[in-house]
Amino acid sequence: MCITTVSRPRLLSSRDSTVTKDLRVPHQSQRVVYRAASAPLRGSVLGYRAFQFHGEVPRRWFATPTGAVMMILSFDSPLTVIDSADDPRSIAATSLLGGISTSATMGVSRGPLNGISVILTPPGAYRLLKVPMTTLTNRYLDLTGFGIPELTRLVADLRGIKSWDQRFSLLDTVLASLLRGNPPGTPEVAQAWQHLRHTMGSASVNELATTAGWSRRQLERRFLEQVGVSPKSLAQVLRLEEALRLKHTKLSWADAAAGAGYHDQSHLVRAFKAMLGCVPTKCGMVPGAGDWDSPLNPLPGSNPQLLARLTGR
């Protein structure tokens, strides 16, 4: 049984927007709290997901390709992230950073798991971390390896706070301070990323390059540095995310393909094969209900249409 309590319907659109979900499954209890980032962080932080998973039963979460950057801050047990395409890239750590992914990953925990996922825009992560975003493309890395002491201390400080509201406020304060201290990336890249996200990948690369006043080659080079993948690759990921969301609303694969902007269902099948290694009707890698709320998947706010699924509207 899933019990959902919604405090405000405008998820991730104002400072006090919060959604709490209590999920009860055999031998374990789960609570997930979604919260918007404060106004100064807009454009850099899509939102927060706090998670509390109790029980000794090992858990596995499937994560589809994503166009966001995930910063997972765990307060106790480590989380293992398994790369389905490249096992040597699998990693176990209490706090992790993962970039845009064009293939599936699996998260595994073997004990109580409490913490917060911070969902960053790629341009926001580029400004925060001061490293090329290709460093994180299709992989998770230990947060401590980035040499940002404020983030390392942040995990300990969050662990010592019992109120989720206070934890979210601390995140707002620390992240805003770090971002203010670093210069932003190229505004044209941020605008192109935002346009691709809002159109769910339907904008053409030529359109993005023309708007930026660059050649395709210039756009792709700067996109790789500040986003982590090419505009075309990001568009493919966003379109697949939208198709999976539509399928989760009980549409047929044909209708999901059309709604996500694929030419036809065979176009969606090719995308599935390329990114998940299987066809939609025979793929065990389609997220279940609990997977949408895992530490690894982006917030509903990173895909505005997911709000309807979460709130039941």
Number of strands: 12
Sheet with the most strands: spatial strand order: 1-2-3-4-11-6-9-12
Helix content: 25-40%
Unreliable stretches (pLDDT < 50, length at least 5) are: 1-16, 300-313
Give the biggest sheet.
8 strands, antiparallel
Number of distinct helices: 10
**Rg value:** 18 Å
- State the end-to-end CA separation: 19 Å
What attributes characterize this protein structure?
disordered C terminus; 313 residues; 10 helices; eight-stranded antiparallel beta sheet
3D structure, described in words:
This protein is of the alpha+beta class and 313 residues long. It is built from ten helices and twelve strands. It has helices spanning 122-129, 149-159, 164-180, 187-198, 205-212, 216-226, 231-248, 253-259, 265-276, 306-311; strands spanning 2-6, 18-25, 28-35, 45-54, 59-63, 69-74, 79-83, 91-93, 95-98, 105-109, 113-120, 140-142. The strands form two sheets. It has an eight-stranded antiparallel beta sheet. α4 runs antiparallel to α5 (205-212) and α7 crosses α8.
Briefly, what is this?
The chain has helices at residues 122-129, 149-159, 164-180, 187-198, 205-212, 216-226, 231-248, 253-259, 265-276, 306-311, and strands at 2-6, 18-25, 28-35, 45-54, 59-63, 69-74, 79-83, 91-93, 95-98, 105-109, 113-120, 140-142. With 313 residues, the protein is α+β, with helices and mostly antiparallel strands. The strands form 2 sheets. An 8-stranded antiparallel sheet has the order 1-2-3-4-11-6-9-12.
